[in-house]
Amino acid sequence: MELMVEGRARRIAMLSAHTSPLEQPGSGDAGGMNVYVLELSRRLARSGIEVEIFTRATSRHQPPVEDDEPGVRVHNVAAGPFEGLTKDELPTQMCAFVRDVLRVEAMHEPGYFDLIHSHYWLSGQVGTVLRDRWNVPLVHTMHTMAKVKNLALAEGDTPEPRGRVRGEQEIVRVADRLIANTDEERHELIDLYEADPAKVSVVHPGVDLSVFERTRAPQVPPLVLFAGRIQPLKSPDTLLRASALLADVDHRVAIVGGVSGSGAERPEAMADLAAELGIADRVDFVPAVSQAELADWYSRASAVCVPSYNESFGLVAIEAQACGTPVVASRVGGLATAVADGVTGTLVDGHDPADFAAALRPYLTNFEFRDTVGAKAIEHAGGFGWNTTAAKTLEVYREAWQEFT
């Protein structure tokens, strides 16, 4: 897998400006993208490519540099206040972020980095500057896009600002290659952002199959699990309302994750809703947990519910299936790729709680059916390993470099 440039292995600058890959997924702004950046970097490093990740420091106690594993170095860049800065305020700090990234590169001989891979639009803005400064290719992964999110806003959520839309348009224009998580995302880049089809490659995210595997039998009474950040976009309220409609079925619900985004404005909203629906005694709210603990939660569940309004891919769905747990998810974005409808789970059109209740019912009442679907889910998830993701990403890097030179 080694990629050579003038006889030496490549060194990649990985940009994750707004959230650190070392943060606990499911809390704050940390989610699937954090997992993506860290796991991809690790697989690239294990293939002989050095990766240096640049992210914004969020505490004065963080060291300037942390080594995750051999070949993966994380730079905690001081850009703006360490704490109390919302994601909407981050664009004002990107100039400081660029400045400090340039300082790191300036400490080395020219040509230290051979390629830039940026993640999310804020990092992409930084990448467009570094690309010209370092004279190297820029590969960008959107993860989410403003125009797509604004087409399917959850109730109580706010539209993405025009500044982000303009920023994404500029990234699409400048980047040498764009990586889309799914075929649908590729079409969105082309149709909504006028991306050059020849520049957009599809690379599915992966799952750590050594961590996410069946560790125990589903619990009794059956458990429905929601895992992720608690915010309107992820729609955990849809699961709670669906649970209330399943009063005749003995079951429990677990919401695992922390409040994020506009959900932080009312941190008790889901607990209040559970009480209002009369189901508080069957719902457990659990703070974000480690990947190993999350695998255990998946294994205990009879179904995992992903009722999001938009997902570029939906790593939770693949992780759950790797643990042998069927997934009931919205038919949106990458979830239509992550879940094999009618085979490894059920996709639901819209966000009507009654439809989700109907989709969940067989997994809570017919255990033979649940186990049959779960076995197929394990097989399906096996095709999404991170090594495959890394190998296909390297192909994109090669194409970007060959055309750039």
Largest sheet: 8 strands, mixed
| Gross morphology | globular
CATH topology of the largest domain: Rossmann fold
Rg value = 21 Å
Provide the low-confidence segments as ranges: 4-9
Q: CATH homologous superfamily of the largest domain, by name?
A: Glycogen Phosphorylase B
Q: State the end-to-end CA separation.
A: 20 Å
Return the average pLDDT rounded to an integer: 91
Structural class: alpha/beta
CATH class descriptor of the largest domain: Alpha Beta
Share of helical residues: 25-40%
Give me the oligomer status: single chain
Number of helices: 14
The neighbouring-strand order within the major sheet is: 5-6-4-3-7-8-9-10
CATH architecture of the largest domain: 3-Layer(aba) Sandwich
Number of strands: 16
- Count of domains: 2
Order of helices and strands: EEEHEEEHEHEHHEHEEHEHEHEHEHEHHH
Strand content: 15-25%
Describe this structure as you would to a colleague.
The protein is an alpha/beta fold and about 400 residues long. The chain folds into two domains: about 5-205 and about 385-405, Rossmann fold; about 225-380, Glycogen Phosphorylase B (Rossmann fold, 3-Layer(aba) Sandwich), CATH 3.40.50.2000. Helices cover about 40% and strands about 15% of the residues. The chain has 14 helices and 16 strands. The protein has helices at about 30-45, 95-105, 120-135, 145-150, 160-175, 185-195, 235-245, 270-275, 290-300, 315-320, 335-340, 355-365, 365-380, 385-405, and strands at about 5, 10, 10-15, 50-55, 65-70, 70-75, 115-120, 140, 175-180, 200, 225, 250-255, 285, 305, 325-330, 345-350. The strands form three sheets. It has an eight-stranded mixed sheet with strand order 5-6-4-3-7-8-9-10, with helices on both faces. A six-stranded parallel sheet has the order 13-12-11-14-15-16, sandwiched between helices.
